[in-house]
Design brief:
The structure holds two protein chains of two kinds. Chain A is of the alpha/beta class. Chain A is built from six helices and eight strands, in the order βααβαβαβαββαββ. The two termini of chain A are about 25 Å apart. Chain B has a single domain, classed as Spore Coat Polysaccharide Biosynthesis Protein SpsA, Chain A (Alpha-Beta Complex), CATH 3.90.550. The chains are: A alpha/beta, B alpha/beta.
Chain lengths: ~180, ~210
């Protein structure tokens, strides 16, 4: 299942929709989701001797900060001056060991293209996105999809799914959290 | 690491136990045989263990499901050992044994009429009778056949099934349902997980040694 939940926004509409910086600590289920994703990312970082990590989403980069400096080189997108991930990813040079892309893919116009661009610049990927979102209740989300569709997109972009963690909050939808090689 | 064992690990939890959950998740990630999926289900509505486990069960797509409570942890070979055991015995449920941390081993089964630790005791006629007549000695950290568990109705609500200890837990009720359905159980005589005693579970589990 893959569904476009709303038309893409204009620049003016985007500024209005994203007027407030993302802060994951505002929601109980997001705090748990971040904690679980951080555990998964740390497992990859430790198991594969990761020395560089990137998170170029316009979030609060909580996972990278939990795993990062001084042991690892970290690339983040500044909260205030940050550019859209679709632009920032093109400047990621050299490639990194681990790319963190959490709760971002459903916000961008070209998710398949973004996964391909990350593939060219990262050895591993931690991805999280809602599983089973079918309504347009969240004004920030362009896309709704399920696990099968996400795994198809990952495969097409050249990623191999290594681990899958499904976090069911029993609220609106599940969170799918993938570790990919 | 060997992959694709066709197993989903389910971890029910509640928000307040997030720190414990991290330890449980790490133990699943460190398995020598990685599960196909890990489902963490939050009992957000406080519907109880039976309902929460059954909701997770409905989401499982693999042949086998392995249960892990959020306050326990698996040792690295847990899934590998149980999958090997259930395949070899052509059984529908495989259970191993635990290392008990912070308390005394509370489990007992019958052998020649005496209560002994279940560790290393093959599951036979006397164990079947013990389960039916004396109580549970198989904590829920087992691996079982998903379709059969669904077919028998999953986990019953506590106090909803006729048993020697009718107030016993939902996992005990499911074992009785599986026995009634003719399921074969197999014991894998290895210590493959850790049971942690803490403030909320000091009463222990299942059948207790006298």
């Amino acid at each position: 299942m893959r569904r476009q939940l709303r038309p893409f926004y204009s620049a003016e509409e985007l500024a209005r929709v994203y007027s407030r910086p993302y802060d994951h600590t505002r929601w109980e289920d997001h705090r748990t989701r971040i904690a679980l994703t951080t555990r998964l990312a740390r497992w990859y970082a430790d198991s594969y001797r990761v020395t560089s990590i990137a998170d170029l989403s316009c979030g609060d980069a909580a996972i990278v900060r939990a795993l990062g400096a001084p042991e690892r080189l970290c690339y983040t997108n500044d909260l205030l001056l940050g550019r859209p991930i679709e632009e920032a990813v093109l400047d990621l040079e050299p490639a990194v060991d681990l790319f963190i892309c959490t709760e971002t893919l459903e916000h961008v116009e070209r998710p398949d293209w973004l996964l391909e661009q990350i593939r060219q610049r990262a050895r591993m990927l931690i991805l999280s996105t809602p599983d089973g979102e079918t309504t347009a209740d969240n004004p920030e989300h362009y896309w709704g999809w399920d696990v099968d569709e996400i795994e198809k997109m990952l495969h097409n972009a050249g990623w191999k799914v290594d681990r899958l963690l499904l976090y069911d909050t029993q609220l609106v939808y599940r969170f799918g959290i993938w570790g990919c090689l | 690491m060997i992959s694709s064992p066709d197993v989903t690990v389910v971890i029910p939890t509640i928000y307040e136990r997030r720190e414990l959950l991290g330890r449980a998740l790490d133990s699943v990630l460190n398995q020598t045989l990685a599960p196909t999926e890990i489902i963490i289900i939050d009992d957000h509505l406080r519907e109880g263990a039976a309902t929460t486990r059954n909701k997770a069960l409905a989401q499982v797509k693999t042949r086998w499901v392995a249960w892990l409570d959020d306050d326990d942890e698996l040792l690295p070979t847990h899934i590998q050992s149980l999958v090997k055991g259930i395949r070899r015995a052509r059984a529908q449920l495989a259970y191993s044994y635990a290392q008990f941390v912070g308390g005394r081993d509370p489990l007992a089964t019958s052998v020649n009429g005496h209560l002994v630790s279940p560790f290393g005791v093959p599951f036979g006629v006397e164990q079947r009778r013990h389960l039916r007549e004396l109580g549970n000695f198989i904590p829920v950290t087992w691996l079982g056949e998903t379709e059969l568990i669904r077919k028998v109705g999953g986990f019953p609500q506590p106090n909803s099934f006729p048993a020697v200890a009718s107030g016993d837990c939902e996992d005990y009720g499911l074992l009785l349902r599986l026995l009634d359905a003719g399921a074969e159980f197999v014991h894998v005589p290895e210590v493959t997980w850790r049971y942690h005693f803490h403030g909320a579970n000091l009463g222990g589990r299942g059948g207790t040694a006298s």
